[in-house]
Amino acid sequence: MAKKEDALDLTPHGFEYNEYALGTLAENLNKGGNLTSREAIQWAASLGVLVHLLYMKKTDNNKTIHRNVEPYEFKFTGDELYFYGHCMTHSQTHRFIMGNILQVEILRNKPYVPRWQVKIPAPT
Q1: Distance of alpha carbon 54 from its chain centroid, rounded?
Q2: For the domain 9-111, what is the CATH code?
Q3: What's the pLDDT score for residue 17?
Q4: 117: alpha, beta or left, given left = phi > 0 and alpha = psi -120 to 50?
Q5: What is the pLDDT of residue 76?
Q6: d(CA 122, CA 119)
Q7: pLDDT digits (tens, 9 = 90+) for 31-57
């Protein structure tokens, strides 16, 4: 049986997709809990899968955009929390203001091999 520590076993190329993390996520959601955007990104990083973002782009008249993103890191700049990830649409790293993320979907069928170290902490 898998242990909690197994959820973040690293392989030479990044996170290993494993049943423990997926089962823990399903158990969490079955208890009636909705995930915050940050928690969904943390789970996706733990599972080694992409996230689909619905994002409000304030620099473009509050246009709503969709992006599939490899999750890598959260960083504060001043009082603003940013999510950094590799955007599959533009094939480059983007930073997203967490407060402008309207919705996050964990794409369980879209694993990725990390290009860099994933610095997102495991969900608690």
Answers
A1: 13
A2: 2.30.30
A3: 46
A4: beta
A5: 95
A6: 9
A7: 556 789 999 999 999 999 999 999 998
Q: Which residue has the tokens 């794409």?
A: 107
**So what's the pLDDT on residue 114?**
95
Residue ranges of the chain whose pLDDT lies below 70 = 1-33
Q: In angstroms, how far is the first alpha carbon of the chain from the final one? A: 20
How far apart are the C-alpha atoms of 7 and 120, rounded to whole Å? 13
What ranges do the domains of the chain cover? 9-111
- Show the 3-state SS of the chain: CCCHHHHHCEECCEECCCHHHHHHHHHHHHCCCCCCHHHHHHHHHHHCEEEEEEEEEHHHCCEEEEEEEEEEEEEEECCEEEEEEEECCCCEEEEEEHHHEEEEEEEEEEECCCCCCCCCCCCC
Partners of residue 15 on adjacent β-strands: 10
Cβ-Cβ contacts under 8 Å for 85 (sequence gap 6 or more): 51, 69, 70, 71, 72, 73, 93, 94, 96
* Cβ-based burial of 8 (10 A; exposed 0-12, middle 13-18, buried ≥19): middle
| d(C-alpha 102, C-alpha 110), whole Å | 21
